[in-house]
Each structure stands twice: as structure tokens, then as C-alpha cells.
Amino acid sequence: MVKPRKPGISFPSVVDRAYKEYKRRLKVTDIMSRDVVTTNPETTMEEAARIMGERRIGSLVVEKYGRPVAIVTERDLLSTVIGGGLSLEKTLIEQVMSYPLITICPDTEIREAARTMIQRKGRLVVFECGEMTGIVTAADLIREMPDAPESSMVVDDYMTKRIVTADEQETVSDIAVAMGRSRIGSVIITSKGVPSGIFTERDLLSKFFAQGRSLDSPVAEACSSPLITAPTGISIHEAARIMTGRHIRRLPLSKKTGLAGIITARDLVEGYAA
After folding, report:
1. Across-strand partners of 73?
2. Span 15-32, mean pLDDT?
3. pLDDT at 169 over 70
4. Residue 33 to residue 129: CA distance in whole angstroms
5. Distance CA 240, CA 22 (A)
6. What would the DSSP string read from start to end of 131-196?
């Protein structure tokens, strides 16, 4: 379990204040991922899943006639294809992709970008002078979330209190279908009733589709363990620091009686954008 840093009695230096002001003024161009992976509408979802898993990314921008027109994400794969009982080998990207793209300018300040992401409910594709130059995800935003008054709100106000669990002996296939149908990106894995790990949509992509492994494997072989948690009551900025440092996008939150909820990178963006 990750414990929050204890506040001490100190006064910020000039350098500290300057750095916080710099973080507040960051723009999309400062945080976006420039290596945008593209595909075409005729690609199968099986191939899309393999590419995302190998590159450890959650989306592909879809190009038609040489121009970016849509996006397909790991959630499309999980909810529409797997949860919907469709064949990955026969389903084409054009059948599940989302369009039009949610676009943004590179000189947009990051808090405005956060608001756009929450309002439009999707990743932001960056265009400059009509050309695609990058993409912004929730993970990109929380990595550079400034220590500002709006990021001092507590995680309790934004976490999801409903915890979905599965026993470690359940198959990845069954859990993936359940995640897709419930439109959730992770499940807490238990061992003899005790939370011991977490299985996410990114685990599904990188550990199975990228490697061609059978989904009939017990989830115990693929979940991330031990489970990283943090206490309720911490700020969204502290949660962002923990998640960025541990390279995770979902953080279970605990209290004395056990797990109280889970917060995602997108939840943190919503808190920052409020």
C-alpha cells in the first residue's frame, strides 16, 4: 500500500513557486504523445488488438485516403467486440471505430484540454495547420497535472465505489467478456476472498493478444500483483503522483475495513477539469 507523503511545515522557495506556475501554464504541445500509431478501416480487430498490445497503447488513429478520420480504442475492442460476442478475426475496424475525431490545437492549455476530454468523452488528437501532430490521453494529462488548488480535491469525490472482483482461478476469457459487457476497464482479482491483484484491459492486450496466448488461461497467471493501493482522503494530485510513479492508470483506494473504491486516470482528469 502506498502511503501519502506527510506534509511538513515549510515555505515554498522561489524555484518551487516558479515551477508550479510553469506547470499551470503547460500547453498540449508540452504533454502530447507525438508517436501516433495509425491503421486503416479494413484492418481486423484481431490485428488492431495485437498492434495495441505490442506497442502498449490504448488506441489507433484510423486513416482513410491518407487522412486521419476516426479512432479505435481498447474499450471498443472490449465492449463492442468481446462483450458483444463478435469475432475478432472477422470484425473490421470500420465496424467499431469512433468518428469524427476529437481534435485540439497544440497551444491549448492543459486544463482546457482536460475539460474538452471530459466533455467530449475521448482521447484528443492534436492538429496543427491541418496536419496531425500528436495525441493526448488521460495518462498524459495526469503525468503533468500541476499542484494547483483545483488538484487538491480528494479522491473520494471522484472514485468509483463499486468494486468488481473475480477469483484468481477464473479464465481470462470469462473475465474479458464480463468487463466488456459491464463497460469497465479492470477487475480486482482475489485469492481465497482476499484482494491480491488487478486485471486490466491493457493486460489483456499486452499479455494475450500481443503474444498470441489463449484466453482460457487462469487470470492468476496474468494479473498485476501485488495490488498497489492508496488510502482514501488523498488529493487527486497525490493520486496522480502515485499512478504516474507506478506507471498505472487505475488505483484501488482503501480504508480500515478494506477496499473503498477505485480511481482511474480519467477520473483524475475529471476532478482537475471541474
Report:
1. 59
2. 69
3. yes
4. 18
5. 18
6. EEEEEE-HHHHHHT----GGGGSBGGGTSB-PPPEEETTSBHHHHHHHHHHHT-SEEEEEETTEEE
52, three cell numbers: 495495441
Predicted confidence (pLDDT) per residue in 182-194, tens digit: 999 999 999 999 9
The architecture CATH gives domain 28-143: Roll (3.10)
pLDDT per position as a tens digit, 192-223 = 999 999 999 999 999 999 999 999 999 999 99
C-alpha cell at 12: 515554498
124-128 and 131-136 strand pairing: antiparallel
Task: Encode 21-77 in three state secondary structure.
Answer: HHHHCCEHHHHCECCCCEECCCCEHHHHHHHHHHHCCCEEEEEECCEEEEEEEHHHH
Give every strand in the sheet of 230-231, ordered side by side. 230-231, 250-255, 258-264
Contact, 210 vs 55, CB < 8 A?
no
Judge whether 170 and 222 are in contact, CB under 8 Å.
no
Fold classified for 151-273: CBS-domain (3.10.580)
Alpha carbon distance 143, 104 (integer Å): 19
Q: What is the DSSP letter of 14?
A: H
Cis? peptide before 226, omega within 30° of 0: yes
Q: How far is residue 58's CA from residue 69's CA, in Å, rounded to a whole number? A: 17
Alpha-carbon distance of 75 to 52, in angstroms, equals: 12
| Run of H or E including 3 | none
Instruction: Please list the helix, strand and coil fractions of the chain in percent, rounded to the nearest 5, in that order.
Output: 40, 25, 35
Query: Domain coordinates of the chain in residue numbers?
Result: 28-143, 151-273
**pLDDT score for 152:** 75
Q: What is the pTM of this model?
A: 0.87
Closest-CA residue to 124 (of 24, 269, 263): 269
Fold identical between 28-143 and 151-273?
yes
